[in-house]
Amino acid sequence: MPTAAGIDYAIRRSSRSRRVRVTVAPVTGAVEVVLPTRARERDAASAVNELAGWITRRRAESHEARDLIAARGDGLPFLGTTLRVVPEPGRTRAHRRGDDLLVPADEAVRAAAIERWYRRMARVEIAPRIEAACRTLGVTSTGLTIRNQRTRWGSCSSGGALSFNWRLLLAPAAVLDYVVWHECCHLVHLDHSPRFWALVAEHVPDHRVYARWLRDHGATLVIAA
Fold it and tell me: Tell me, which fold does domain 75-220 have in CATH?
């Protein structure tokens, strides 16, 4: 693995990339440099040298996120509550029973089963929130998609289709509420103009608090480190 400025990094070639891009994995802290097909490998080293300070800060944030995730122990957050993970032999699907989340005992399939459960619950939790917000705003949505994205929590297409990251269910309920309102307000103003933010503030007065929470804690919204 190449090293620059004392930082190990991996190189990935991308025919779609038009410039050198450096990423730091939000939990592991692994550094990857994405190079356009014809870029030189020394361009990767130059980018890491140039961004060494930023990479170091992001890695520190990753270590902090990993510690916070480890501190959860056997629990998983769910909209501000904590579910106790209970492995059961023979189980293939995750199922909630009170404050217990019953999961497969087989560790090889457990994480996938838990993610599928969170995806199902995301639709259950988000759909009525969209309906209520749209009713208040006097607009309609053309569809709902649940995704697993690295950095985007929600989106609104020009055709009125909404998508949300299932990992929002690992955040407090008020944070999910904010993201739903944010995207539903895009059904009125498909931009981030002053009119858009005024509409968001009208319905979520503390929206800056929740946006900041996502910036500070978004990296911890994962099932496991």
Answer: Zincin-like (3.30.2010)
